[in-house]
Amino acid sequence: GLTAEYFRFPLPVEDVRGGFRLVDGGFELQNLMARHGSGIIRGSGRVHSTRSFTGFELQFRGTNIPLDHALYEALPREYRALWDETRPIGLADVDVTLTRPSGSRATGALPTDTVVTARLLTGSARLDQGRVQETDGLIDIRDGVLTVRRLRGTLGDALVEVSGWAQSGDGPEHWWFEAGDVPVSQTTSAAAVGLTPPRGVAGGVASGLAPLAFAGTADVWGQIAQHDAQRARELTVHIKDGQLGSFDPAHAWGDA
Question: Residue 61: which of 21, 20, 33 has the closest Cα?
């Protein structure tokens, strides 16, 4: 087998095997197979001619591909910024489609359209709320947009599922998420929420300045959106279990 790197998607591969079939001045890939790290890559497609401005339709499918720096460097520059949004780590099945219409001597080579779809098999990805571990889900990059579909994993002790999209750079983004068994803690004061304890309880009215502390778990649903530099967040929280330390710390409320 050979060691090779395709300049339109320069991912280094080894043990390249397969053939080419000449068709109408161009050629087709036949049973192309190669290896990148622990992964196997298969290629198919057609290049219309041998001219520098030729058009082509090429598909590469990789299984168990490591999400490493080499794959990052192979992405078009504008897509690297989208990769930076999630910084995935681990293994994935990756599909890459490269298409370009034929140009001419006058136009030169026309732009190449690149579509990358990755199904995370194991690893982690960074999202707005933190790094999701033990991930399973689909990441799609095309037309300058990163799309995440039903990315599941753990965020701390919580089980989460995230879907959404983000444009490259400082463009708009919109995320929907669900999380179960999320640790929740909040501390405030009775005075801050307008509560006054009865006289004679833990110091009387003065204890209205004492802290109110809640700790427990909850299920959370919500969405986060950013458009024109304006960020909005909506959350629905269902408290499942918890304890509220009220006016008298010795008499906390449980099973909230």
Answer: 33
3-state secondary structure 227-255: ECCEEEEEEEEEEEEEEEECCCHHHCEEC
Task: For residue 155, give Cα distances in angstroms to 112, 126, 162, 244.
Answer: 37, 10, 11, 24
Residue 244 has pLDDT above 80, yes or no: no
Q: What is the structure's pLDDT at 239?
A: 83
> How far apart, in whole angstroms, are the C-alpha atoms of residue 151 and residue 149?
6
Beta strands in the chain (DSSP E): 2-6, 9-23, 26-36, 39-47, 56-66, 89-100, 113-127, 130-142, 145-155, 158-167, 173-189, 211-227, 230-245, 253-254
Confidence of residue 205 (pLDDT cuts 50, 70, 90): very low
Count the Cβ atoms, other than its own, within 10 Å of residue 175: 19
Confidence at residue 106, expressed as pLDDT on a 0 to 100 scale: 95
Question: Which residue type does 178 have?
Answer: E
Q: How far, in Å, CA of 90 to CA of 199, rounded?
A: 59
Cβ atoms of 107 and 96 closer than 8 Å: no
Phi-psi region of 156 (alpha: psi -120 to 50; beta: other; left: phi over 0): left
Question: Across all residues in the chain, what is the average pLDDT?
Answer: 81
- CA end-to-end span of the chain, whole Å? 65
Task: Please give the DSSP secondary-structure letter assigned to residue 43.
Answer: E
Which SS3 state, helix, strand or coil, does residue 72 take?
Answer: helix
pTM of the model: 0.71
Q: Which residues of 191-223 are buried (b: 16+ CB within 10 A; e: fewer)?
A: eeeeeebeeeeeeeeebbebebbbbbbbbbeee
**pLDDT reading at 210 higher than 60:** no
- Rounded to an integer, what distance in angstroms lies between the CA atom of residue 162 and that of residue 236? 15
Beta bridge partners of 95: 61, 117
